[in-house]
């Protein structure tokens, strides 16, 4: 098991390295000069060269990447051209908001997908199967950003039930301890601020969950249908075990394994979906930071955020693989 973990860690590191090389090279091939934003209109060619040399952008792409990688290993991802602050500090400020949004979205998606998958399995071969499949296809066809717009129009404007701008009402002041607003409000004992932060999270998290949960429910339903014909299920029925106990005590545990694998893969798309959702809801996370970096052609910030997104997705997949191995006796024995 230890050797397997070490191999998987090496795979994660090599993948992250390759992706950083690809992102670094592609950004350098774009026909645009980010230094133009940092120089005044009266700047001369000599001024541009001095600034380019100061930022380490005067050498070849290979030399620039070597310098960047050496600094990145030490936790220095460069300095933002637009914000004029260290990239690491900007990411450290924005990352907790995105993680908080993603985790709440994941919980909401599971609360929708698990009962939904079981209900779809129960509808198999019944009159409600076709309407249920049609509803599932409709949900799969709507992207997360469109769900965000719909939720803003319905629950934010037409029926002003939930806030849809920002992360917290400006009237609250919460000291930053962990960076996770739901935790910091609890540590400060500000229950009203905690409730307000949760209400600000509900709409963007629900928009992500609505686009994330249908595929999970569909795979869970398919797994349950396949497992329903297994010999141990038929033996349990012959022994007089109730269908409810067979479903939750025997079938669900095995059906959850392929669903867990898909969950790890789809979680990467969930992180990608936060980019547009954070822009729509003015949520101060990594996605919003990335959009601002792209809009201002801020190369160091784009590279830093892309690397963090990559590491997050790889980390989640690593954890899911480990959990899958721990839950599957055959893989543990292998």
TrEMBL record:
Domain ABC transmembrane type-1: 95-320
Compartment annotation: Cell membrane
Transmembrane stretches, start-end: 9-30, 101-123, 135-162, 201-220, 255-281, 301-324
Membrane topology: Multi-pass membrane protein
CDD domains linked: TM_PBP2
Main localization, broad class: membrane
Sequence similarity: Belongs to the binding-protein-dependent transport system permease family.
Protein name: ABC transporter permease
């Amino acid at each position: 098991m230890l050797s397997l973990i070490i191999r998987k860690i090496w795979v994660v590191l090599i993948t992250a390295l390759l992706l950083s090389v690809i992102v670094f090279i592609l950004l350098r091939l774009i026909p645009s000069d980010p230094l133009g934003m940092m120089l005044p209109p009266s700047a001369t060619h000599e001024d541009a060269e001095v600034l380019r040399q100061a930022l380490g952008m005067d050498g070849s792409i290979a030399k620039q990447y070597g310098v960047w990688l050496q600094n990145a290993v030490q936790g220095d991802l460069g300095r933002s051209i637009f914000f004029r602050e260290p990239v690491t500090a900007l990411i450290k400020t924005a990352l907790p908001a995105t993680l908080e949004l993603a985790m709440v979205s994941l919980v909401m998606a599971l609360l929708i997908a698990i009962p939904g998958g079981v209900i779809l399995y129960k509808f198999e071969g019944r009159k409600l199967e076709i309407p249920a499949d049609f509803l599932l296809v409709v949900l799969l066809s709507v992207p997360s950003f469109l769900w965000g717009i719909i939720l803003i129009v319905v629950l934010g404007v037409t029926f002003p039930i939930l806030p849809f701008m920002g992360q917290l009402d400006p009237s609250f002041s919460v000291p930053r301890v962990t960076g996770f607003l739901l935790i910091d409000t609890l540590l400060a004992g500000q229950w009203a601020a905690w409730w307000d932060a949760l209400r600000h999270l509900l709409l963007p998290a629900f928009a992500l969950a609505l686009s994330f949960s249908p595929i999970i429910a569909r795979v869970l339903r398919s797994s349950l249908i396949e497992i329903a014909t297994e010999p141990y299920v038929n033996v349990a029925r012959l022994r007089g075990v109730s269908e409810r106990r067979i479903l939750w005590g025997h079938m669900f545990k095995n059906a959850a394994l392929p669903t867990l694998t898909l969950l790890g893969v789809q979680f990467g798309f969930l992180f990608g979906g936060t980019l547009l959702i954070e822009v729509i809801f003015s949520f101060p996370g990594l996605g919003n930071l990335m959009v601002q970096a792209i809009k201002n052609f801020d190369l160091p910030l784009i590279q830093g955020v892309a690397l963090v997104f990559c590491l997050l997705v790889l980390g989640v997949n690593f954890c899911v693989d480990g959990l899958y191995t721990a839950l599957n006796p055959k893989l543990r024995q292998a």
